[in-house]
Design goal:
Number of helices: 6
Distance between the termini: 29 Å
Strand content: under 5%
Number of strands: 0
Shape: globular
Helix content: over 70%
Length: 108
Amino acid sequence: MIPDSVVEEIAQGWIDEFSVDPYVVREREMSAWFKLDDLIGNDPHAALRVFERIAQKDLINWTFEGIAVGPLRSFLMTHGDRYQAEIGLIRSRNSDFDGMHKLAVEGL
């Protein structure tokens, strides 16, 4: 299990990297993207903690949609129904995560 501080670091890093106007040309660090992608493949429970932490933050539309149709959709495609109970709990306690999940599922 990864510490809460690492969950926060990845969540905030992902937000920071993807909260800039998409039409502004700049180099993105991408380290949080790679860390979350690694968790999706190797530690799905930790990835769910990161998703929930991201959903607890104040996000711009670009970031909200980006997490939903990017890593969250990848998580759902990779793990199918294996984490439905955990996802259901997060959806029930966080309406923003519920919205992200609905958006992610639309493309599947």
